[in-house]
Amino acid sequence: MPNDVLPFILALVLGYLSGSIPFGLILTRAAGLGDIRKIGSGNIGATNVLRTGNRWVAFFTLVLDALKAAIPVLLARALWGEEAAMLAAVGAFLGHCFPVWLRFKGGKGVAVMIGSLLALAWPVGLIFCAVWLLIAFTRKLSSLAALTAAATAPIFAYIFASQWLALTVLLLALILFYQHRTNIARLLDGSEPPIGGSKKTA
């Protein structure tokens, strides 16, 4: 294996292993809230953790999911450079959405995308958060907020950083859209429950 390829593979693996840590599952079990995979949509992200009614557990899930992406990105950048950092972000995203330990059924990637963007180019990460908050507060739809923020993120990545980061963010956005495919169907037919709604969502 060429030495110049090895750092990229290591960055991808590092990101995947970190991203695949199921903090939502770990924290809900530690708090005595049961198996998060049997609640609401069944995914391990902060939005589903919030359906347990424990806002603090959901908050810490959000923070830790963001950190499990930001840390490998920053570490990969320090060890192997900017291109490796982007690959670490992709790895973390794949690890969170498709963790091998949970039969490849993970979260939808919003918190991981926030952590990745803040570590890769913090202005883009802040804009992502701002767009999410704007749509969430005005439309009261978490999935629509996430999809809008993800759809616009590659544009801001291109403006504030580089075309390579824009392509990386585009890849993350496409995976995020795939993970939200059932939400998209409900948004189109008007059945998507608002933030705080009690309907079961996938």
Structure, described:
- This protein is mainly α and 202 residues long.
- The chain has one domain (6-189).
- It is 71% helix and 0% strand.
- The protein contains 10 helices and no strands.
- It has helices at 6-19, 23-30, 46-50, 55-80, 82-97, 110-120, 122-139, 142-160, 163-179, 181-189.
- The protein is globular.
- Integer average pLDDT: 91
Cα-atom radius of gyration: 16 Å
3D shape? globular
User: Largest beta sheet, briefly?
Assistant: none
List the secondary-structure elements in sequence, H or E.
HHHHHHHHHH
Total strand segments: 0
Which strand-content bin applies to the residues?
A: under 5%
Concise synopsis of the structure shown:
The chain is an all-alpha fold and 202 residues long. The chain is 71% helix and 0% strand.
Notable features of this structure?
202 residues, mainly alpha, 0% strand, disordered C terminus, lipid metabolism
Secondary-structure blueprint of this entry?
Elements: H1 6-19, H2 23-30, H3 46-50, H4 55-80, H5 82-97, H6 110-120, H7 122-139, H8 142-160, H9 163-179, H10 181-189
Helix pairs in contact: 1-4, 1-5, 2-4, 4-5, 4-6, 5-6, 5-9, 6-7, 6-9, 7-8, 8-9
